[in-house]
Records
---
Amino acid sequence: MMIIMKPGSTQVEIEHVIEQIRENGLTSHLSIGEDHTVIGAVGDTHAVPTAVFEVLDGVESVIRISQPYKLASRQFHPNNSIFPLDGFTVGGDEIAIIAGPCSVESREQLLETARAVQAAGAHALRGGVFKPRTSPYTFQGLGEEGLEFVAEARQLTGMPVVVEITSITQLDLMVKYVDVIQIGARNMQNFALLSAIGKTQTPVLLKRGMSATIEELLMASEYILSGGNQRVMLCERGIRTFETATRNTTDINAIPVLKALTHLPVLLDPSHSTGHADYVPAVARAAIAAGADGLIIEVHPDPAHALSDGRQSLKPEKFAELVRQVRQIAEVMGRSLAPTTKVQEA
Amino acid sequence: MMIIMKPGSTQVEIEHVIEQIRENGLTSHLSIGEDHTVIGAVGDTHAVPTAVFEVLDGVESVIRISQPYKLASRQFHPNNSIFPLDGFTVGGDEIAIIAGPCSVESREQLLETARAVQAAGAHALRGGVFKPRTSPYTFQGLGEEGLEFVAEARQLTGMPVVVEITSITQLDLMVKYVDVIQIGARNMQNFALLSAIGKTQTPVLLKRGMSATIEELLMASEYILSGGNQRVMLCERGIRTFETATRNTTDINAIPVLKALTHLPVLLDPSHSTGHADYVPAVARAAIAAGADGLIIEVHPDPAHALSDGRQSLKPEKFAELVRQVRQIAEVMGRSLAPTTKVQEA
Amino acid sequence: MMIIMKPGSTQVEIEHVIEQIRENGLTSHLSIGEDHTVIGAVGDTHAVPTAVFEVLDGVESVIRISQPYKLASRQFHPNNSIFPLDGFTVGGDEIAIIAGPCSVESREQLLETARAVQAAGAHALRGGVFKPRTSPYTFQGLGEEGLEFVAEARQLTGMPVVVEITSITQLDLMVKYVDVIQIGARNMQNFALLSAIGKTQTPVLLKRGMSATIEELLMASEYILSGGNQRVMLCERGIRTFETATRNTTDINAIPVLKALTHLPVLLDPSHSTGHADYVPAVARAAIAAGADGLIIEVHPDPAHALSDGRQSLKPEKFAELVRQVRQIAEVMGRSLAPTTKVQEA
Amino acid sequence: MMIIMKPGSTQVEIEHVIEQIRENGLTSHLSIGEDHTVIGAVGDTHAVPTAVFEVLDGVESVIRISQPYKLASRQFHPNNSIFPLDGFTVGGDEIAIIAGPCSVESREQLLETARAVQAAGAHALRGGVFKPRTSPYTFQGLGEEGLEFVAEARQLTGMPVVVEITSITQLDLMVKYVDVIQIGARNMQNFALLSAIGKTQTPVLLKRGMSATIEELLMASEYILSGGNQRVMLCERGIRTFETATRNTTDINAIPVLKALTHLPVLLDPSHSTGHADYVPAVARAAIAAGADGLIIEVHPDPAHALSDGRQSLKPEKFAELVRQVRQIAEVMGRSLAPTTKVQEA
């Protein structure tokens, strides 16, 4: 950590900084420039907030040199983390595709979609039962009843299921029913929830908040990892910018940046990151070409009657076409789609 | 709501839209342009998602004409909502100032700050006990013990207390201890939490999310209002932009925009919206000049030893100076600072 | 165009709107809702500003339904525009790669780079001689002397050359020396420059401004097209967002969105859109996978001594590897790299 | 400047950095941390780009400690720059208000507006004759003919005139006709234009680009100052963010930040920063309360027939009311409105 002093800072101010460095278990190193004195704070700084120095008199700014996360960092864990799910792995050479409806709307809708996405090549089933909706007047999800349908779809297809949690009060249910707990963009900094999930052993799909930096996403994963749950998958899902032609802006840069910074698997959700079914296949291909480890995609047998996100949901036949394209891109990347489970007879 | 059809949309597609309009309890109105047919959907549309039309074949886009919120809207409630707190009101002619430390750190720190801000002219005391922190390695707040100190400060000064909630599991404690529940930026779209608070009768200070639009802030308030809790105060606290000279960008436009759109009181938090104590007084004055109903400001007796947000905390004497300036601006605006409670003898 | 009246607008206000519609050569169509009257303005509206209605009393907002651009629109020109350059085409099945140094620094540097990028598979040479630099204290380009070196590199390699213009006063020189005039992000809305270039017949590479919407990029192209110059290539080069891990945020969504909205060729510049050589190959592959028609990439034989943008410049051998990867992605997309000109003997 | 080396950087890499430091006329200072070696580069660094170090092998990042601007910096020029215009000053205790139409539309419109804003208390007249418009199909300004009307309005009222330049080819005309050359947001980084204006002695009003950082605005001013023209006034006019309720987001923080960083006068343009006449007075008051030195405001006698920006233009009587409010805020700030010139008889 480097503490930059203001021009004209006094000897007493500099000594206070050095004292603060010592109190935080670090050693100091002085460098005197033309305008600015710079004081290095050397040692294990990831748990020392820059704020403890920023507030001192005479300090202009504080620059963190080491990363503020450790468990998520590739620096301390150079090899990719590879997590097995039922019948396939995430984070290694295999590309995983999670697909399904935005919301579980009924038993029939879910089972039909589950069979369709499995036939098209999906490896896991998504489906929301607690829905975070901007308006209190719109469909809020089926709740626990929906989880029963999810369990049945799991049973029927053999595919692991990915379901979003929206409240810490749902955690016991989630651990009981689901294979992967999804943390949505709006809860990426719900730290109480992150900490609680960190104490379970259920794999997690952690989505980037819509205005979260890449570093904040990694810090959010650090909450889960530091609780003891090592199986965290990260997911870029678009960020909020000034552009209005699409629902969000897919930050495709985040794929190679995350792959450089962390050993955790990195997925992309082109349904939310574009907001429009027409653009999903192009961005899904781009994600794999950029090095993503997988995709999560909204599929609905009848988007025109979806209770949420119909506009960005693919029909099963469009999804099947997307899987074919993604498979080819994966091969160019020296990777392959994960093997699919055998489709069960209905 | 206006449904814009794509150029070349068919008669059958248009009929499906009209049928969907009918199914949603609305009546339709057709307008045929050179390239585009536009279908109006007339009736009470605030609870009809645009998505039910967007997903239909042949639809290019859907434009909402009426506001998607109703209880928060000034259109249906033209007069300002004015909420009494202990000894003063918020939302009327009086300007309210909430002040105190970012975090409650100890009994002594809180009581000292409470007395200091009261002496300087504050009307209510803020102080966090459950802290949402980006890093799991930094101070997370004193928890329930902190609430005891808050209660003591309340007793000592007679000032109502404002405390942030970070999990639905803290709600019973909050209702017991605090006068105003603060919902922080990171939880503005924690809909489970909003709904639960909507069922209490404790006043709420709802902060804008760091990338939330003004409309989303109003929709978040609608969750609370529709649960039956009418006492919601809104708070601008800066949004996230590309500018890095300040921690956030104060959206001062939001003050007159919110005052035009809603009857709810509107406050501003210049501590978070600037992130730097040097800029807090200027932005506090600007807020009142722009028409805000109050301020919430971080004050710490010794910012250099604050466990969080020290950089943006004012020392009590700087805060007292700010109150003097704000008082003069309030008078120019034809308003006045709320009366302060008598300072109790220590 | 739809004009939305405020609740409670008067008959006189509505009549003024209808009169304004008539004065603009359009016909009106009335639709009366519960709260809002909506008036359609039907006819050829692309040249009618929404502002002529927005300013009228009683008007709440005005929504444009038809696109404000016409010459750039795929609606009126469904087939891709395909422009021949020396020996290859842009906008059809062939993928074109433009490469070269950020700045022309010397005759030797340019010729060496030109030969290296040609050997690696580039189709055209880039190189700036007038440099837009944030600081007046940094290298501003070689100016006209640099153009002589560019001409020599063109002669030597047979590759067409792409050079950025930064002032209308350079236009005659540019028309004389270069094959493609590049308009940089900072000049995307330099309308005097756009109009002047529209009166030439030199092909144009128009880069998106760093905070320009996709629609604004298309409107900027409309300035050139409406002057009579039809050969405009668009280029996504990253937009400015809150993310600081990369220099800009590559808006990969813009590729399929632009391909849907316009017939003009669409390229991507991963050097500027990421700002870091390490991330350029991943984003270059993503661009082609998303449907881009080409790439423009910074290459320098010795990035450590580049006078500008060294950090994001690839060494020739890294660029050659990128070309190999892009070729494979192009094949998956059913496309191929454009043929390269024969490398001339030095 | 601090050069942060990657973990594991070699001795040879470190020596290359030290050599590069020496070649740039600076001295080096080594600091060895647990993971990272940090090398300080000490001396006058404002003209040394960080890029010369960023490109070296083993370098992770480079942090600038001194400001990259010098002439604009308050550090080297602690007192406010105060510029006299006809009959008043900008940058001292007096608050200056510039007002007038967005576009000069006709002789009558301009003279009527000039008289009205003068009567209401304006100190200078604005009016555009070369208009930067997003669409090539909308009114582009009267051009040189408009300047004649501007000169006549100047003659009639005695007020100095402020006119936007949009091309370097207009510079001779501008120097001849206008008192203050305005550089609009879209040309803030038109460096050829900035340099040319730097060689004149005409005062400049430099507007912040819509996605320019505060530092970039100061660097743009440095181009003008380093050319020899010292009279630069800066103007915040709103930045582009995700919020769509207003045309731009007023960055009110920029006022105190700029006043801290630079000695140049700082104005605010609430017409563009809000885009809506209803919000202009609130933001104008806020600007002065935050410490701005002046305002530039669009006023039109008949906004409903304005050829541009009518929606954000105030009628003269609303402007007069705004001036009254601003006067009171100025007094609270210990300042006063500049004296107005005597209104001439028509």
---
Amino acid sequence: MLTDSTVETWLREDIGHRDVTNSVPGETTGRLVPTEPGVAAGLDAAAAVFEYLGVDVQVQVEEGHQLDPGDPALVAEGPAQDVLRGERVAVNVAAHASGVATRTREAVDAAHEVDDEVRIAGTRKTTPGLRGIEKRAVAAGGGDTHRLTLSGMVMVKDNHIAELGFDRAIERIRERTSFATKVEVEVEEPGDAVRAAEAGADVVLLDNLDPAALERGVEALPDGVLAEASGGISMDDVPAYAATGVDIISLGSLTHSAPALDYSFRTG
Amino acid sequence: MLTDSTVETWLREDIGHRDVTNSVPGETTGRLVPTEPGVAAGLDAAAAVFEYLGVDVQVQVEEGHQLDPGDPALVAEGPAQDVLRGERVAVNVAAHASGVATRTREAVDAAHEVDDEVRIAGTRKTTPGLRGIEKRAVAAGGGDTHRLTLSGMVMVKDNHIAELGFDRAIERIRERTSFATKVEVEVEEPGDAVRAAEAGADVVLLDNLDPAALERGVEALPDGVLAEASGGISMDDVPAYAATGVDIISLGSLTHSAPALDYSFRTG
Amino acid sequence: MLTDSTVETWLREDIGHRDVTNSVPGETTGRLVPTEPGVAAGLDAAAAVFEYLGVDVQVQVEEGHQLDPGDPALVAEGPAQDVLRGERVAVNVAAHASGVATRTREAVDAAHEVDDEVRIAGTRKTTPGLRGIEKRAVAAGGGDTHRLTLSGMVMVKDNHIAELGFDRAIERIRERTSFATKVEVEVEEPGDAVRAAEAGADVVLLDNLDPAALERGVEALPDGVLAEASGGISMDDVPAYAATGVDIISLGSLTHSAPALDYSFRTG
Amino acid sequence: MLTDSTVETWLREDIGHRDVTNSVPGETTGRLVPTEPGVAAGLDAAAAVFEYLGVDVQVQVEEGHQLDPGDPALVAEGPAQDVLRGERVAVNVAAHASGVATRTREAVDAAHEVDDEVRIAGTRKTTPGLRGIEKRAVAAGGGDTHRLTLSGMVMVKDNHIAELGFDRAIERIRERTSFATKVEVEVEEPGDAVRAAEAGADVVLLDNLDPAALERGVEALPDGVLAEASGGISMDDVPAYAATGVDIISLGSLTHSAPALDYSFRTG
Amino acid sequence: MLTDSTVETWLREDIGHRDVTNSVPGETTGRLVPTEPGVAAGLDAAAAVFEYLGVDVQVQVEEGHQLDPGDPALVAEGPAQDVLRGERVAVNVAAHASGVATRTREAVDAAHEVDDEVRIAGTRKTTPGLRGIEKRAVAAGGGDTHRLTLSGMVMVKDNHIAELGFDRAIERIRERTSFATKVEVEVEEPGDAVRAAEAGADVVLLDNLDPAALERGVEALPDGVLAEASGGISMDDVPAYAATGVDIISLGSLTHSAPALDYSFRTG
Amino acid sequence: MLTDSTVETWLREDIGHRDVTNSVPGETTGRLVPTEPGVAAGLDAAAAVFEYLGVDVQVQVEEGHQLDPGDPALVAEGPAQDVLRGERVAVNVAAHASGVATRTREAVDAAHEVDDEVRIAGTRKTTPGLRGIEKRAVAAGGGDTHRLTLSGMVMVKDNHIAELGFDRAIERIRERTSFATKVEVEVEEPGDAVRAAEAGADVVLLDNLDPAALERGVEALPDGVLAEASGGISMDDVPAYAATGVDIISLGSLTHSAPALDYSFRTG
């Protein structure tokens, strides 16, 4: 959840101690408007910035809405001084989140051209401080958030397996993991996927494989065990990976390298 | 400055309440290593993550260093459990900041091919929560931070001028602004640049002009008054703007749309 | 994770602005020692209190260790003034967490007398501010943490089902839930358990049923779908519920009503 | 006082980053209702949770009110999504505080059967993070809060006396303590009580004495000096201690071992 | 207690995002030295600033020490960059606190010329954010901190008495106040002092009386009830008030109007 | 900017855990009224205290208004309990800030008697935690805030110059400083002022000079370079310094040694 403390941090870092020019009299209305097509996200966070400042604000579209240039996404009304004080931060957070959502939708659309069941997922490669907002933006773009924190799904890594073997490593993790939590096992060879599944993985992560190798791994998996592809997959690679039958394709770039969506904030 | 509270926020959002797998015994050494060329930034912030966790950490290169793939940028040594707990967040912040620095250097290099005096500057279009880190990254890439907060330089906007005229608007702002603070005036017509300068601007911001119009505005300015170009300038546009004789070219995309630099974290 | 900010909050609320008597000269060693048998938990948190104050501290036993009266659980060494400043808070957190762990182990032991596969789980009925510490204490006592936050597993409640029916309600939730996240469905009639399972539940929560009704619900479930019993189950009821073949028995009282374990802190 | 930051901490630890199921449309009304008899406390804190979320909330009874099962204690009205987001935390804090108040009233009633002047007091053995709420709950149950922090009353301990003797130890503390602050002296022998009083104690703490020994210590005290009994006194011991003529009986278990009062939250 | 969070706030407000000049290489030693005579206070807080930055620091004198110009009060050693980063804030807090201590000692000395038993006390008129530090400084100067917070002693005000009469107002407050807490009653007529004492006040506050009126009120009080004079008493008035036999003279100006003690910070 | 967190800190330190007397029924109106003439400042901060508590509040005068005794500066209306809870803190912050503003106006008036162009400026010698409020108060009193943080203007100190010489030191700083930021050079000899100006200083700080020496330094400066006098200048010295033609006179005492303006808070 987005807290008041976080909004406070954003405003404080932008404003500093004192903004001399910001003693504007009167009331104003500001509209947050995209100047290019994209997917709406981060509007609740932008609204929270204005709410912190005591400005009335209405979000105009749902998260995930496909915006056309000029569509108003959010309207803020109140003392000009307070509207202007929130403007820059509100635009920044909406632009960032909508950029993530837009990039995610592109990846989802590219994948669904090939296989409309495959999921495009984010990773833990998020911008520090913005985990929740970026994960919501991935969802807004039609993607899968993946686990939100380290505590959300347990990952059995190669070093665990090297030490104990598949069966023992997974068994041990299972004992220490809640029934409420899934266990994912990371493998680096297609042939290991089926072993992980047999040892009890809920999900098998096939790391850093090319599409052909990935496909061999995926095909061997029994029903009910999900396969995730991850590791250095670019936007251009998405269709080839989607064609492998894998269940989930994870892309760090959705969150760490999506360009911002350009918005302007029009007052008066 | 980067505070312990901020690092705490980053770790908490990544870890959640409890990380079952992270009871790894023993000590380990981790190396933060780029997998592609780029400019080092955010390493102090990455180090602060490990320091918060009580892990010994050494930054290996200066901010702004041009990294080759495989160069160790940071080394962390300590209990495996603590090193692994900090890994993801440390990588995320270094990757983000180094991405900003790398993009900045590209812009600076492109500009200096044409005019080696022109400055490439960031804007207030930063990622919420990361203002300080992104501004340092811009500097690491050879760019100019521009003002860090609203309080850092005062901007006289078109609405002030519309209301009061150049002379009166600038005079009024001057009265309310410290001697320690510069005053920048935003103009949207090249012909207004000289009027702003005569009225006492330290810097004139020529907003949303094409290079030809910009050049007319810049040429008219007296010595000692700086000219800044801003507004919708892409990386490809940099050389054309640099050729106008403008002093500063500002790019929001340095901070809001730079792709992350890819790092891996190698332990053992 | 337990942050420095949380420890700071604990100390500040105990100490207030100024502690006149606490200008004790010299160094001291303090030992945290249980005065009754119980299960160790919260020792990392107690240690963090001393670490915040710059006192050297060694935890003497693992979380989950069965303590006898007089066993030292933690040793703190440093300036007497700082050791004494942390004492009360450190004891309070260890006593609370160890009480939860001890109560959990009693429940686990009672259940395992009957069925050594059944899991005893905590709930979200935790003490505000201590979610993570209480969940770790449940695990220390041999229990299952259950989901740590609302985001950790998705619950389909009766009102969702009333509105949309089992299939549609579960399908809709599935679409909006990550692959990394399990879906649990709450039913109030034993006969609904199998319908929930068929509609795709990973876990079925049988709420407020007596053991006989619970058993009917559990027996009807297919393999691979877990059954959880919850709602008003007291410590005395545990064996009867354990005998039903249910997979998980959840008890709010593990966290909200466990008496503290008595510790004393011996200095000198 | 309960701050917004504290409420924020409670909500964040319960919700995590994102609650998928919590996009419930429409408005709702929720009622906090006890399912067993007990003493109302923590309702202001529960209300503060809803207020943080922008939900209208009315506390229905005073702190300390004796609740019957089914009595509405608090009513919250607003967007269903926000009411449900606050529900769990609000119930948890009210259940905990009301449990403390209920346990306190039991102790007070047991004591007053024997001596209706004796005070039942809490201690500093409170749950970390909940000092203020638990102290208010003790008061709601008819108990005495005792000092709220280390700074609230000064305690002269046996180690001070061992070093300096009664007179000198108390004199020294007096010099360093504000006139606004009482001084309590801890003794472990009944015969020392009167010496402490003569040396200037406002209150004498008779620690870990059985009722007979306690009575001897109490009887020797001059008028105007209060006697407090503390140390390992259980609920069952209260009448015997109350019969000694002591002024205050302190019980750590009021705050650290009171079972929660069971509440349900009924919406619609 | 002074927390890391508070120190962080002080440093952040002084430094802002980035301090370009502060990349000074090498190690340095800094000495905090008064340039005028005064009373040492706030040195622990100044030390905490350096400790937050990882600088070794030694406080050279006790709180309350009478400093001569040039006496080193604190020595900090470490990386020049970190020493310089802390300098301004450390000096500011020491200068402020030592100013309060110095002013307090002046008042104490003036009072003790006349009556060496009378106490000079601070009030709740402290600088927001610095309550604890200023109260410690008052104590360092030989003054009495008075209550530290609203919760520290209970004040019965004229409006309570107007409504209920002395006896009933005090009785009611007594019932709701812990045995650990003193009750002070505020009176505005000398004749009311004795009535307040008879009704059970521990302390009587004689508000806004001239010395003659005060003396009449004080003389009438029975033994064991303390008399406090407060309200508009200047430094010059202290001897006249001290001569009345009053027990405590409270001065808001100790904390809200004491000039800073001048320190310089000498490095190298 | 003043954040909710800061207000929370102020209230918490004043109130502590629980204020027994503060259960006053009914509504009240409180008026903040000066009892002596002075300059209004800090009223927004005082208002923020009441707003945090949910009390309606109206500031009656502009920052910088010359108040007469009895003029209402702020009116707060709401539940008596909440108004009284905020009273002390609101008065304290307004009294402190108005004291700074009043002292500043005295200095400005004294200076303008001699030279109506000279600016009276604050310094970084502010009270920890109150930088922003004190800087606004300086401005309210007609003074110049000077730089708000270390990041606001760059200072070239004597140790930089000693190492590199004027030209090289300033050139190096210039390279690392944004175009948005001024550079000030500190000199300790009048003869160095002109060298600093020639090397490119925007402002020259003449440190610790007497008026005669200062005047020699100022006269030598070229047009467009500002001269600042600083270091040990008392209120009494202001006219003599103002007569030198210097542009700015900086006084630490404006913020660290101004006595509070006396306000009373009248309710009912």
